[in-house]
Design goal:
The chain is α/β, with parallel strands linked by helices. It has a single domain (2-170), classed as Dihydrofolate Reductase, subunit A. 19% of the residues lie in helices and 31% in strands. It is built from four helices and ten strands.
Amino acid sequence: MKASVFIGTSLDGFIARLNGEYDFLPTGGGEPHGYTEFLASVDGLVIGRNTFDTVMAFPQWPYDKPVFVLSTRALQRAPQGALVERLSAHPSEVVATLSARGLQHIYVDGGITIQRFLEAGLIDRLIITRVPVLIGTGIPLFGALSRDVVVEHVATRQYPSGLVQSEYLVGKY
């Protein structure tokens, strides 16, 4: 199974402010930068509980794919028609479970979830879009690692708005 990350950060590497707000990121009505095409390439999403709670506050549910929420606590009821399932397992068990169900490519989202999958050596591709703003402090995309993670640069794209997107393949351990 392939696991990919597609995420936006401030120039200084934060995915959200300390209070969880991500008001510095461009809204969905901005210029296209590959998200729609990326989302079409995945079979499902694996997100953390905080990301799920954030998405639940959106005016409408944004996904037409199965969403697997990593949490030890019960979830609030998802909107009608949303395919949402709570899982509570180590990332390797999550990948094995979803692979056994026939999923071939998952989108991993949420800071802690991305960090856990990266630490477990389960991320294959990183697509990081840097927004031209420094916010000084916030929730970092990356955290402590027990070893170096070697990545191979695939491409960097720049957009008229100032967004800079880099894509990397993650070396296997």
